[in-house]
Amino acid sequence: MKTEIIYFSATGTTKAIVTAISKGLRGEVHFTDITLPEKRKDAIEIDCDLVIAAIPVYGERIPDFLYDYIKNVQGNGTYLAAISVYGNIGFGISLEQWKRFAETNHFRLIAAGAFIGQHTYASREAPVAYGRPDESDIREARTFAVNIQKKIDTGDSKCPEIPKCTLPGFITKLPDSGTRLLVRQPRINNRTACNNCGACVRKCPVGAIDSETLEISENKCLRCYACVKICPKKARTAGLRLPVLRTVFNRAGMRKKENQTFL
Ligand SMILES: Cc1cc2nc3c(=O)[nH]c(=O)nc-3n(C[C@H](O)[C@H](O)[C@H](O)COP(=O)(O)O)c2cc1C
Ligand code: SF4
Ligand code: SF4
């Protein structure tokens, strides 16, 4: 069996989940990492038996810029296992979007999963999903893959039931840029600490950082924090715009959620 794992992962949690999933599959497994902008220049051609697609949830859905990219991928009847990785707040309409994507792009959806990853904006004061995926999440991701494999082996191509999102519609219709109203841009606060290594420039999923000045384009920045987390000098800092937002955020993500799989 040939499997193509297509994933986006700005801060590594989605990558950890798909790596665990790959360990539960038999046959040839190939990874296509679409995190960096140059990887999304060309359309993906599908030539395998199973596609595993994994994207983090931004604003209770698949981020618009990624949906715009994947909507050009045609399945021609290939099996699809779709995965949303989210920060313990909610996966919103993302799995419903995956289902719609499978229908319109001629994939056979045979599995879906919503896995938890440490929230991008988690901190010591608001430790939402801190340290996740943990060992138990990794085991569950591997078991999910074993179950997908079993389903394929037995010729069971039933489409799983995807739960309906119960959030008010307007929340899931806010633009990607909505996060900018709540989260500050990661500025270099300590110019003397920055050694101009360029790691943040190379890591940005949307090419938002100027390689000369290291300034960030406000209109491009996703607030994904890849640049903050990669900086070896901890020179970039960011945060929520108002202290009260941290309280709201912490409350929303306080109760530990379990991974959910649908087969
Ligand atoms: C702009 C933005 C919006 C997010 N929105 C949500 C959300 O609606 N629900 C949620 O639970 N987590 C949300 N998160 C958290 C991420 O889904 C989560 O941290 C995920 O594990 C990140 O994946 P990565 O490490 O592969 O980049 C958001 C993160 C960002 C950057
Ligand atoms: S500049 Fe914005 S989009 Fe680019 S890595 Fe930093 S937070 Fe993410
Ligand atoms: S990663 Fe940090 S040290 Fe390197 S250029 Fe960016 S801000 Fe400066």
Layout of strands and helices, then pairs:
Layout: E1 2-7, H1 13-22, E2 28-33, E3 50-56, H2 64-70, E4 78-86, H3 94-104, E5 107-116, H4 135-153, H5 169-173, H6 179-182, E6 187-188, H7 199-203, H8 226-230, E7 236-237, H9 243-253, E8 260-262
Parallel strand pairs: 1-2, 1-3, 3-4, 4-5
Antiparallel strand pairs: 5-8, 6-7
Flavin mononucleotide is lined by residues 9-14, 56-60, 85-90, 92, 117-120, 179, 222-224.
Protein name: EFR1 family ferrodoxin
Keywords: Iron, Iron-sulfur, Metal-binding
InterPro entries: 4Fe4S_Fe-S-bd, 4Fe4S_Fe_S_CS, EFR1-like, Flavodoxin_dom, Flavoprotein-like_sf
How would you describe this structure to a colleague?
The protein has 263 residues and is of the alpha/beta class. It is 29% helix and 17% strand. The protein has nine helices and eight strands. Helix 1 (13-22) packs across helix 4. The protein is globular and about 60 Å long. It starts with a strand and ends with a strand. One iron/sulfur cluster is lined by residues 186, 203-206, 208-209, 216, 221-227.
List keywords for this structure.
263 residues; alpha/beta; Rossmann fold; Alpha-Beta Plaits; 6-stranded mixed beta sheet; two-stranded antiparallel sheet; 9 helices; 17% strand; binds flavin mononucleotide; binds iron/sulfur cluster
How big a fraction of the residues is strand? 15-25%
| Number of self-contained structural domains | 2
Instruction: Quote the CATH topology of the largest domain.
Output: Rossmann fold
Q: Biggest sheet, in brief? A: 6 strands, mixed
Counted by DSSP, the helix tally is: 9
What characteristic shape results from the CA principal axes?
globular
Q: If strands are numbered along the chain, what order do they take across the biggest sheet? A: 2-1-3-4-5-8
According to CATH, what is the class of the largest domain?
A: Alpha Beta
Count the beta strands. 8
Multimerization state = single chain
